[in-house]
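Researcher: I've been going back and forth with a colleague about how Asparaginase might be arranged in three dimensions. Neither of us has a model we trust, so I'd like an independent prediction. The organism is Loigolactobacillus rennini DSM 20253, in case that matters for your notes. Sequence below.
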Amino acid sequence: MTWGIISTWQMSLSGVAKAAEQLDSGRPSGDAIQTAIEDVESNPAFKSVGYGGLPNAEGTVEMDAAFMNGDTLSIGAVAALHDFAHPIAIARNLSHEQLNNFLVGSGADDYAQRHGFTGKNMLTTDMQRYWGKQVRKNATRHDVLNTHDTVSAISLDYRGRLHTGTSTTGIFMKAKGRVGDAPLPGAGFYCDNQVAGVVTTGLGEDLMKGMLPIRINELIRNGATPQEACNQVVYPFVDALYQRSGHIGAVSVIALDKKGDWGVATNTAFTFVVATDQLAPTIFKAERGKNNTTVIDEKNV
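Model: Here is an independent structure prediction for Asparaginase. You can compare it with whatever you and your colleague have in mind.
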């Protein structure tokens, strides 16, 4: 059995490298997911996840995260979480609970506090200044829609266990309590050891309309490769939504199946990171190609 991990955006390179070392040494894929995502959550240079993430309209950092175990199909998720260092760790802990697996707002905060998770003021001085500047200039729709990147990851270990994880602060200056696709099962992620893991990144309001992870998972179950499934689901959805509504935000999807094969589809310039037992952590870039295909190249850094 091979191992592998794939994660959205170039910002996940360092975390994927750490997770790859764990997978190579035989650690479980769930540990690798948490390691990869916590690395991004900890870095204030990445302004759409965790510490230093984007505030909402009231200047508060609200965080969403989810974790899914492809063996048991257990899910844990938090939304509108405040002032805890690692939302992904809290989501993972919730996946072990029999009930109350998805908590929001003060309920999520209370759970994290009761279970001893590390509290932290997630609003940095730099981001507070940036928020104030945008408020003073009356931030436009363009400013808001072009400042969101969820870190989402899928991991496969030597024992064939698949896990997925997501973490984000969502769109800049979102309404208090706004939740996107990232913590929503079937919309932002899905994972099944018998098939594949699939996760998304982009504009949650549009991604929620497509339920892309569960649809891609079913195509893989029925024999499609991850790349075929991503192409066949994402591009018709993107085109149909644009035709019906006249607009669509960024939509990117990655998939990793039980054999270690991966796929990606996107309607934007999208970077992602892959590591396997055959491939050192590598950044790729993807764009939509002709005839509902995806053009993928290794990114020079």
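Researcher: What would you highlight for our discussion?
Model: I'd start with this: The first helix runs from residue 13 to 24. After that, consider the following. The two ends are 31 Å apart (CA to CA).
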